[in-house]
Amino acid sequence: MIHPTAIIHHTAIIGENVEIGPFSIIEEKVKIGSGCKIGSSVCIGSHTVLGRSNHIFQGVVVGSAPLDKTYKDEKTYVIVGDNNVVREYSTISKGTLKGDGITRVGNNNFIMTCVHIGHDVVMGSHIVIASSAQIGGHVEIEDNVTIGGLTGIHQFCKIGRLSMIGAVSKVSQDIVPYSLVDGSRASICGVNMVGLKRSGLSNDEIKIIKEINSILFRRKLLLTQSIDIINKMPQSEFKQHTLDFLHKSKRGIARMKRLA
């Protein structure tokens, strides 16, 4: 059902069984997949693609111009996957030509109220972002991450899969996969045990992750030394994923807070 007060550009493509609430605006060259629910007073900006069965609540803006002073109204995009929930008054910006021109959101994500997802962000799937978290431009978030409310993530940071960031954290460096993170200057607190168990990992798999965490953060080694030791561990997807993440890190990795 499309409410009669909704404004839909004639170039927009609307799938089957889509609901669009009152006073919502769908701009040019938008594609909305089947089964989506668009609440009231929502704005879907031009060149935005929504997959199937997304639920966009009232006041959300998807596909707004990027918060970048160099943006000159170039044709850039937001691409959202399937089965995402975006709660009230959150914003998702378009990409910029400084990236590849696309902000990407995967599948089955839960984005709570008043969250900002900046330009050129690349999000995976099964991510939970709690209310009022602010995600800077060019951030990469892997699958199954949980981000606490009021957290700020600096532009260009990378957040590894199955990590959890506590509320009101300031993240200015990359977060290694499987980590538990907290603090006004976010630091490693340990392994995200709750997340690992909920994801169905076995005790043996969790043991490997805990060993990698210990090598990186508890043995007071240089990062190069830690990588050498991890390289010598038996092959596993957790070892390889961590090594790949470390090699692509550009901002450096968050470390464990040391007591004075």
Helix and strand layout, with pairings?
Layout (H helix, E strand, L loop, with lengths): L6 E2 L4 E2 L4 E2 L4 E2 L4 E2 L4 E2 L4 E2 L3 E3 L4 E2 L4 E4 L12 E4 L4 E2 L4 E3 L8 E4 L4 E2 L4 E2 L4 E2 L4 E2 L4 E2 L4 E2 L4 E2 L4 E2 L4 E2 L4 E2 L4 E2 L7 E4 L4 E5 L1 H6 L4 H15 L5 H9 L5 H12 L12
Parallel strand pairs: 1-4, 2-5, 3-6, 4-7, 5-8, 6-9, 7-10, 8-11, 9-12, 10-13, 11-14, 12-15, 13-16, 15-18, 16-19, 17-20, 18-21, 19-22, 20-23, 21-24, 22-25, 24-26
Antiparallel strand pairs: 26-27
User: What is the multimeric organization of the chains shown?
Assistant: single chain
Number of structural units classed as domains: 2
CATH superfamily grouping of the largest domain = Hexapeptide repeat proteins
Residues in helices, as a percent range: 10-25%
Sheet with most strands: strand arrangement: 3-6-9-12-15-18-21-24-26-27
Distance between the termini: 61 Å
| Low-confidence region ranges | none
Structural class call reads alpha/beta
CATH fold assignment of the largest domain? UDP N-Acetylglucosamine Acyltransferase, domain 1
Q: What is the molecular shape?
A: elongated
Domain UDP N-acetylglucosamine O-acyltransferase C-terminal: 174-253
Protein name: Acyl-[acyl-carrier-protein]--UDP-N-acetylglucosamine O-acyltransferase
Pfam family, one: Acetyltransf_11
GO biological process, one term: lipid A biosynthetic process
